[in-house]
Amino acid sequence: MTTGSVPKRFSIPIGPQHPALKEPGHFDFSVDGEVVTGATVRLGYAHRGIEKAAENQNWVQNLYLLERICGICSHIHATAYCLGVEKLADVEAPPRAQAIRVLIAELERVHSHLLWLGVTAHEAGFDTLFMYSWRDRETVMDILESLTGNRVNYSANMLGGVKFDVTDDNRKAIERGVNFLETRTRHYLNVVTTDQVFVQRTRGVGVITREQAEQLGVIGPTARASGVLRDVRVEAPYAAYRDIPVQPVIETAGDLEARFVVRLKELFESYRLIRVILEQMPPGDLNVRMPRRPKAGEAISRVEAPRGELFYFIKSNGADNPERVKVRTPTLCNMASVLVTAVGQQLADVPMILAGIDPCFSCNDRAVTISKAGDATSAVWSWQQLRQYSQAYYRRRL
Amino acid sequence: MNAPTGLGALVSLLIFPGGLFVLANGLVFEWIDRKLIARLQNRIGPRWYQPLADIIKLLAKEEVVPERADPRLFFALPIVALAGVLTAALYLPIAGRFVFSFPGDLIVTVYMLSLLTLCTGLAGANTRNRFALVGATRTLTQLFSYEVPFFLAMLGPAAVAGSWQIADIMAHNSQQWLLFIQPIGFVVALIGLMGKLEMRPFDAPEAETEIVAGALTEYSGRGLALFYLGRNVELIGGLTLVATFYLGGIHNVLDYFLKTGALLIVLASLQTLMTRLRIDQTVGLWWRVGALLALAQWLVLIVIGEVAL
Lengths: 398, 309
Fold this sequence. Notes:
heterodimer, A: alpha+beta, Cytochrome-c3 Hydrogenase, chain B, 4-stranded antiparallel sheet, globular, B: mainly alpha, 13 helices
């Protein structure tokens, strides 16, 4: 995808390997002096074939595979998959399991937003905020580890419920951690809105107007920073969100500062939700029995990942394996907004604008077909064609 | 103050206080800077020999000359840069001792201290790397923004002393600390030094998240090591210059370490507090605020001078 003027004067390539990117992706910014005049993105460097692999594994094995799509929001992928498969099988997880799912999802949101705060501050060259926010993030990582035994891929879900309970010890540890994080978050909110030097880099930079946000289909915190209410937890509540309503955080400025404020204020909402869940944890079983093969049919499952709406389409033909699992991660929806907002901005602001949508390239990457502009021939190659191409390519190189 | 001759001259030039001492001192100060920033950022930071280990590693590495770069310029620039700042150090009271001194050495010293930045900019333009080109443009743009206010801040004490010779100026203000008499000049000089050294918030020329390593992106091995050494010597030179002019001069080794060390701590703390400024913001800051402040200091000096006369 390309925006802005096509004839390039001087282009700055960012990626596939670049210090600003923690994952491979390729951006090409044409610049006039320091001002960006055009932007191109090419994704697909970290395609891992997970969707195809999901078709070759059984329903339970897929839980572990899909949880590994994202290293940051792993739990929400498993939740989306479980909710979809449970819908197919006409099974509903018990209320306690639903509450625990939401509890972990909110803890995960805290960890993801704190991580984002650090990364984006680092893109702006504010390493002190980076180091401090990542130090405090350890608190929530420790909580997750004490709950589930893992810091990243928690493996909390199972088809039909969750695997473990929240004990009184856990409850106390969570309350302590959340209290600490709440004071720290208040401090960070104060820093990002009042630190004069930092505000110079964020206020009025990378503005996505409400109209643009709606037109480009921006989702998640990025949309909410532009005054568009897109939050699956509010629009189509799932799991325990049906009983515990979420108060969405909306900012209208649409600039980078608003994206900081939205995410930090969402942390307070997450702390509130965590406390409410711990208070109103329904008693009962942790899981129900699931049939080994769900009935044939299709299911759509939407959940709110920390970055925005996560979409799963699951198709079953009644066999041991799913026939198709399609995943759309929020990064794909937000990517277009980067290219549109980068044009006309200073080159120095581009890393922050890119980080502002909280991109996750390898979650987002699917097989891509590349067609050159004006070339209408099929871009899907056979194995034989691919072999010939690679041999010719290396012969040229030698 | 007589210039040394014979063996004494060689020792002063190569070992103490010039040459080796300055280089070693630079490495130590780099470590203090890095360690302090790390501790203030809640990190552990490097071990004491890390800067030296970096230099040794770089010196041992193969140096890759990029295609299309002029190899002579590529090799010469780091050497000129390091030679420039080392020469500047000879005219400064490093460890309380001047090696050379002559009327007008202030101008030479300030010019020599700028040579490193100039060489960095040229090196970036020479390597023809896109990141290096943007970095070089930023380096030189920044040079033109902080240099004038920094120079004005250096000339304030010179005007009071009525001399262009560093030793004279130091002798003139050794009784009182100009920090309290010309506070604006001191602030401009210190912040100007941060701009010179491309310290945060003025590190846009080497902003790693945008342009990798800026002008030095294509440098590896010996050239990079020499540039690093040059930057360390410039740190020493700049700190000494500011301490000489604004902190009542440097009279012995203890005095030297106390005053430059104190300034270094201030610089390290300032760096942790700041976000990187965009290059347009840097230029705006210097010309709208820095230059005006330096001029205001001058105005005060002139008015006081008139009244006193």
